[in-house]
Amino acid sequence: MGDQSVIPVKLCAYCGIEPAVESEHVIARCIIPPPRPTMITVPACAACNDKKKHDDEHLRDMLAIDIENEGHPTTSGEMKEKVIRAIGRKQSDFVKQARGKSIYEVRRTVSGISLGYASRAYTDPERINAIFAWIVRGLLFEETGDRLPVDCIFKAGKVNLGHHADAIADLQGRGGKDGPSIPPSFESFYLRAKSDPTVSHWILRFFNVHVWVTTNFEKYA
């Protein structure tokens, strides 16, 4: 009997262990309303796909409620309506987490002028890191084919209002590249350390909100 070609098993882009059984949207469909442009997808196993789904919905609710996205045609339309329905059914993890933990703080312009007090919803740092860990793992795999190690540490935070352009320019000035994007709703920028490819710096834009993410930063600092 002649030799038969063996079709290699495609492994999950996230865990790198289990066979991929479907294409997973790195940036969730629930965040990008129809008509959708070309979406960013990577191969994923069933377990990772199921875990990521809950974090996708958490991110959707967080972005729709964020004051920086107030008035944006996408987040103020169908996306916010979905969040309102989820709240009515008591299915919004983000609202459950934030309820009773809102923080009142002074909001200021970039020049420091006080705009009065406003409520800021509580966000769980560990949950935020986990959400953006999924996204950065997927984006890096889509861009380079590389997987970050399982024990890679992620740290995420919000780019302060008014400093978005400066943060992107700084990253690009240090040799950063444009990463995968879904125009006009999402774009990414990243810089990988030459000495250690597990160390990277990312800026992600979701509508009007900009987020920074670092991977294994403590090894670089």
Strand order in the sheet with the most strands? 5-9-8-7-6
Give the overall average pLDDT. 85
Per DSSP, the total helix count is 6
Shape type: globular
User: What is the strand content?
Assistant: 15-25%
Task: Give the tally of structural domains.
Answer: 1
Main β sheet profile: 5 strands, antiparallel
Secondary-structure element series: EEHHHEEHEHEEEEH
Distance between the termini: 58 Å
| Helix-strand makeup class | alpha+beta
Unreliable residue stretches: none
Assembly level: single chain
Rg from Cα: 19 Å
Determine the fraction of residues in helical runs and give it as a percent range.
Answer: 25-40%
Q: How would you describe this structure in keywords?
A:
221 residues; globular; 9 strands; five-stranded antiparallel β-sheet; alpha+beta; 6 helices; two-stranded antiparallel sheet; 32% helix
Quick structural summary:
The chain has helices spanning 46-65, 78-88, 93-98, 125-144, 164-173, 217-220, and strands at 22-25, 41-44, 103-108, 114-120, 154-158, 177-178, 186-192, 200-206, 209-215. The chain has 221 residues and is an alpha+beta fold. It has one domain (22-220).
3D architecture notes:
This protein has 221 residues and is an alpha+beta fold. It has one domain. The protein is built from 6 helices and 9 strands. Strands 5-9-8-7-6 form a 5-stranded antiparallel β-sheet, with helices on both faces. Strands 1-2 form a two-stranded antiparallel sheet. Strands 3-4 form a two-stranded antiparallel ribbon. Strand 8 and strand 9 form a beta hairpin. Helix 1 crosses helix 4. The longest helix is centred in the N-terminal third of the chain and has 20 residues. It is globular. It starts with 21 loop residues before the first strand and ends with a helix. The mean pLDDT is 85.
